[in-house]
Records
---
Amino acid sequence: MKQIKKITCIGAGYVGGPTMSVIAQKNPHIQVTVVDINQARIAAWNEEDLSKLPIYEKGLDAVVAEARGRNLFFDTDVDKAIEEADMIFISVNTPTKTYGKGKGQAADLKFIELCARQIAEVAKDDKIVVEKSTLPVRTAETLKSILDNTSSGVNFHVLSNPEFLAEGTAIADLHNPDRVLIGGENTEAINALVGIYASWVPNERILTTNLWSSELSKLVANAFLAQRVSSINAVSELCEATGANVDEVAKAVGMDSRIGPKFLKASVGFGGSCFQKDILNLVYIARSYNLHAVADYWEQVIIMNDHQKTRFAEKIIQTMYNTVNGKQIAFLGWAFKKDTNDTRESAAIYVADHLLDEEAQVVVYDPKVSAAQVYKDLDALGTRAPEANRRLVKVVDNAYEAMDGAHAIAVLTEWEAFKTYDWAQIKEGMKKPAFVFDGRKLLDRKQLEELGFKYYAIGE
Ligand code: NAD
Ligand code: UDX
């Protein structure tokens, strides 16, 4: 088996950073260098003060503290890191295309191709190249072609090793994965990567497949997870119409061991950088093979999710006497889920956008998201001028300030701390009737109704 002494990871984001930190932690004999063209991000990864790491993940600081400077390094010198490595992970972003063919659906592979060309140009000896990014099925073929045709006499083996961590639980997921998936053609290369994970993952949880199964499995896993959320969200609307309670239905259904209880929490809609992007990509791939029924089937997961976000915003407007113009609506949470500072595709962005169209005054509080990020998210939609976003939206760093004088509260992220607030005091400071729209089914209906709130929760 090829002995791996040095690993390089291109891309120091939500996946590259935590994944490589854990690989380094568990393999002290291997030097792991994470590189990125984003200098600010690398500087943040090198921060003395571990609370300033670029990503907030429980337990990440301890892993970085253990490995950084020992066998874990963060750097901007991509060429040097490529040249030195035996194994190179590509963990760059693969966003949905915003231009040209496949716009709005296909994955944009320009960053992947740039990495492949740079590896080919710089490499002087044989390398194992590992796809860590989520990629369309058969991308390994493209990678191999670029590597083989643009390098000079170097052998490359391409492996697929998609990442299944979820944000907010990244370190726990990496320490104790349900499975590690490795797709490849070359046994020696596969075994080299298996050896790295075998430092802490039991052998029966390291699954090896052919390249295409591995690439496709990642898209399919996300599609299945998102489909469960859209399924329960579809049921939530039916519950509201019929008097059933979506939590009760989810429990009854999930107790069937064939279905299982996880990922059946009704919500204002799923967010995050992966679900929508990966399903759109799956839809695009299916259409490109003329599999229109397959494409339509998966596209419905996204359509349902968009509907859920719109429905929630409209419920707020309709309940507040059909106008929110000039009314203060406090947003509890902006991140796409609890325990992360990531806001990509967060439902909060789209709900806010809808309410701002109606000239609502939105005041946002999230324990981990900055004002700059909130404005960046809204500006990126391009719905209105940046000045209008700043006129209509205020971001505060105290939840009570957000709710003081508000006509309504909307719960967008399920941060545990929201449950512990002094709801009697909050009600005092609000306009009456004091509305709460709980997009996460987080708060206690009985408690809030006893205090006199008008409480609305998804699926009840
Ligand atoms: P990210 O945007 O946080 O990080 C990607 C990093 O790559 C950025 O810092 C960027 O500057 C860097 N980069 C881009 N091109 C580069 C180049 N040519 N050279 C050096 N650096 C370059 O993205 P992420 O969330 O870490 O996701 C990365 C991949 O992992 C995506 O394909 C995503 O679908 C997949 N994934 C993400 C998650 C998640 O929870 N975020 C989970 C599983 C898989
Ligand atoms: C997801 C996948 O879970 C992970 O395996 C993959 O590697 C990356 O994409 P992530 O997006 O980080 O992870 O978080 P996840 O926990 O899956 O939640 C995604 C969204 O679905 C969040 O907005 C969450 O609030 C929502 N969700 C999840 C629900 O609304 N209900 C649920 O029951 C579960």
---
Amino acid sequence: MWNFQPSVNLVKGGAGYVGGPTMAVIADHCPNLQITVDDSNRDNIKQWNSPSIKNLPFFETGLEEIILRVRNKNLYFSSNVNETIINSDMIFLCVNTSKKNKGFGVGQASDLKWVESCARQVSSYSKGHTFVIEKSTLPVRTAESIKTILNSSNLVEKNHKTFSVLSNPEFLSEGPAINDFNKPDRVLIGVEEKKPIEALENIILKWIPNQKIIKTNLWSIELSKLTANAFLAQRISSINSIAEFCKSTGGNMGEVVNAIGTDQRIGADFLSACLGFRGSCFKKDISNLVCLSIHFVLSEVAEYWNCVIKLNEWQKLRISKLIVHNLFGTLRGKSITILGFAFKANTNDTIQSAAIDISKNLLEEGANLIIHDPKVSEDQIFSELAIKLRKLKNIQDSNTYKGAGIKENNLNKSFVNVYEILILTEWGIYKKINWKTVEKIIRKRCWFFDIRSIVDLKEIKNTNLNFWKIGDGIIKS
Ligand code: UDX
């Protein structure tokens, strides 16, 4: 038997969207475990430890309540990574694996620098036997590299250190992350030898029934995680491709989705036509599949998955062009309201949000933007757009952009005198807007683009708004 002590810790880079909520839920279900969430980013740890619960680094439904229950009881946040490793029996790697921004595989392959540096730290500072668990989505066979790195330190043999590497990927989606983790469809555990599974399984069994735990070899699990995300993303690109010609053929998008979604073999989820999938996972994971296909000289397979990404980019560009086209091909000096900046509702994450690209396109056309989002801060919006603005300033006079990109917290004020309104994030509050009232403060014949398909047509019918809806095209003009 493994001499397994109830002390679970998490290493550097761990206090992000996956590490923070995951460890909070484990701590909540397993009061016997002492859990430390480590991150070398001191500001991030400061926010997790902030006496005001409203200062957590990000918003997740139900997270604040859990943190209040477990923080400083059996869940700790620290930036003293090495000390945490010394005291750990089990280490979850929840590190950032964003795409490489230079070198071989730029823009496609995952950057594994954090995985490598974490593995080296664990190799140097761990004691006795340590379970190392991959939580981040990683390219297939990363566990093999982790194992090699873990065993590479000179101290390993001298100090009789041993390691078991397991894969236990996370399927939580931002927004409902806590619920996803409390009630997952299934939990995957991959390992080379059977025995080490017990240590992790005993933790998971505290709140998840045995029949939901799927155990296989490491490589199947690593591949399953990429495949699950690629299949979900592929459904979105497929439905977006149909949305484009639905109206012109006389079809109705909602009816088509209902008709195919009720076929059990297809299912109803991930069929909402939209601006395309955003967030940190889908594009990265498909790019990983493309890299894998190229590595195994499967060019047609690489091309197939690349098309899913291409269609996603095309969707965004197509809608940007439509927005410009409807205002006579010019946006110079015109005010446009953007409702929603997060990449989806119920999160303040803006990673790869479509709002960034759309805003950039509209700013380039000379528009003034008024941006509203209930959870994304002004600083965050400006820092996302600043990169683009700086680039734009290189090619045009910076004065052109004076006044562009105002963050407006008051929803009603954000409509004053505007030419166009775009819903880019499906926040609940936008479903409750009284369009009859809004009509009084916008410009006459204002265009309204419901890109998330959330507004009830009945609410719009009695207004003077020109109305365009994803999948259905122009409904009223
Ligand atoms: C995703 C996976 O769902 C999760 O299992 C994995 O662990 C991480 O990646 P997340 O990125 O948080 O989670 O968001 P998700 O809800 O899956 O949405 C991804 C993108 O697809 C969003 O931009 C969303 O707006 C878009 N989407 C989703 C659609 O355009 N249409 C849909 O029908 C569903």
---
Amino acid sequence: MERSGLLTGKTGVIFGALNESSIAWAIAQSAYREGAQFALSNAPVAKRLGTLEGLAKQVNSPVIWADATKDQDLLALFHELKEHYGQIDFIVHAIGMGVNVRKRRPYENLNYDWYAKTLDISAISLHRIIKHAMHTEALRSGASILTLSYIGAQRSFSHYSEMGDAKALLESIVRTWGSRLGDQNIRINAISQSPTRTTAGQGISGFDAMFEFGDRMSPLGNADAASCGDYAVTLLSDLTRMVTMQTLYNDGGFSGMGIAHAMVEPMMQILDVKKQ
Ligand code: NAI
């Protein structure tokens, strides 16, 4: 992709890059290519599990370790960001984890402590991040906040389980905060992304089936992380300055489909339906 410089002069923070397959990693690479300067953040446990320091070198970023479910970590993060950049222009929230999903606990029999943790990490963390950003006056007028969702927020996908609830809450937080941020000229949107082979994505049982189904159903095929990075650039740029409170699909057209031709033949074979 050729550089357009859409984010030249903009500063921000990107949460959630764990390793090269992370969607936040791709967003960081696209934002860097377009001229943005930003800090990277992840939970302290990611030091051991991921390779964030490698990305930080590539994109010339400081790393600020913070657990996005902990108020004191986020407060410290925004103070540090302010020292580094003054006020910032964007926040990218690409954080998620389904604890019951990961531990293969079915939706009909959720462990409610894990469920609360799932909602805290995957949705309430967005609320918390914005709250601390506003209290520390970290965001400049014209700033853009972006989070990552999945169509399982709006429709039922059998294996997505508790994460469907978490994403529904996340998209609601986008609207509810969005209505309060407008008078400070700050906007917030969610990108609803295709199934993508990442650590969080592949933690979902049946992920391969969801991936394959998405790919066959979408006229353009599944959108990959790199395309999500490029779409994110537009939402962080001034070109989309009047767009807020939206869930926007980077999904190759999946959300507009009913039945795709590519699914008809295999379905007829599996169901042993005779051609008329
Ligand atoms: P990933 O596993 O690379 O990223 C998830 C990130 O959340 C990791 O970096 C992890 O360390 C971080 N995280 C977990 N707990 C945290 C905490 N307490 N504090 C701070 N960070 C924490 O996976 P991916 O797929 O890149 O996930 C990014 C976002 O994209 C998530 O919200 C996910 O639900 C969403 N998404 C993913 C899709 C997929 O198929 N992979 C599809 C649609 C949305």
---
Amino acid sequence: MSKPVVAIVGRPNVGKSTLFNRLAGGLVAIVEDRPGVTRDRLYRDSEWLGRKFTIIDTGGIEFKNEQTSISTQMRRQAEIAIEEADVIVLVIDAQNPLTPEDEMIAQTLRRSGKPVVIAANKVEDFSKVELYEFYSLGLGEPIPISAVHGMNVGDLLDQVISYFPSEQEEEYDPDIIKIAAIGRPNVGKSSLVNALLGEERVIVSNVPGTTRDAIDSAFEHEGKHYILIDTAGMRRKGRIEELTERYSVSRSLRAVDRSDVVLMLIDGSEGVTEQDKKIAGYAHESGKGIILVVNKWDLVEKDEKTMNRFEKDIREQLGFMQYAPTLFISAKTGQRVNRLLELVDFVAEQNSTRITTATINTLVREWVHLNPPPTDKGRRLKILYITQVGVKPPTFVCFVNDPELMHFSYKRYLENQLRKSFGFEGSPIHLVVRQKD
Ligand code: GDP
Ligand code: GDP
């Protein structure tokens, strides 16, 4: 099930990032506090009344290396919002009259036909609020809020989620492995998808995804069924497509959400870039199975050490993703593309492995014996037992006498032991520490 996307737009200084932080703060799902995961301040997950969604602060999208006026930037940000979001929140400053920029953005949004909610921000005194002027934007009733104080933000969210598409059941059979290819523009996603589908003579059909405008491809390989999730309008690239692809990753996020296994592409002729790290960070946090696919290997001048060197570099750059297997391919020549599905099957299986509590705990005793937990101010952490509570990703709860005594390094030790014993290759694992009373 992919999460709806909510984009925040508006001219500078109206309070977009304040609202963004307000919406993201405190509501964010618990993610691992592992160092090294690259986070982006543009995208956050949030939740309201049980509906999960992703928020984008378009004001934070920077158009680097480009000489653009503020109004061009705002227009582009609005275009990106229109392209990517299910619902758009237009923030205006209720303490001041409307400006030509507000009108310009409103006009762009009106033409799009997308649902828009107007947040009239910086309202601190709700008894004195005058909103008549803002109706002239032609986008419905403005909702007065104070982003700084969090006032009325709930009403705003009620409106926002009322526009979400209705929740649908997962559209595919759970036995079908769903694959998403992600990575920065030009890394070879479309080429890889074509190479994968090209090999399959059996069925190549386009399945209209439930997600707006996504076209998934179903195919069969050696009797097994797969779905390739269309990531970035891979088969048709218009101007907006390129624009959004260049500046954002929310398309990839949607695809990641709906997938079982993520193929994270890296350009072998260029190495790991900052953008790769961000995209990989999202993939990691999603808990899905991950394969690092180094593409364009045909372009790399090689000797017998090149692959090892590249692999080592990836491990250093993407330190949080040690668990992901790598495959060096060329989507162009087809080199090793035939090995990919085997790896996909393996990683999908690892990501949904279940270990019995009895099996884990026989080992836990050994682990604790080999490396006893350290004491803190005279008190010693006691590991009572560990039990697996979920799959995709494998999630464990470790019951202890006092969670405060669990140090990061000891948690890391336990995670490493779980991996050593059970593998979970290509899969993140989560270990949650709880008090046993
Ligand atoms: P952005 O450029 O649209 O992202 O705006 P910011 O979130 O950076 O906010 C711009 C300024 O408006 C900052 O000084 C904020 O503290 C202020 N601001 C944001 N929200 C409110 C609000 O609800 N009330 C008041 N009084 N000031 C606000
Ligand atoms: P996308 O933007 O990630 O979907 O990337 P494309 O699949 O459109 O590929 C971008 C460019 O890289 C195109 O010109 C491809 O022909 C080229 N390309 C993709 N894969 C390979 C590869 O394995 N080797 C070489 N030499 N070029 C490739």
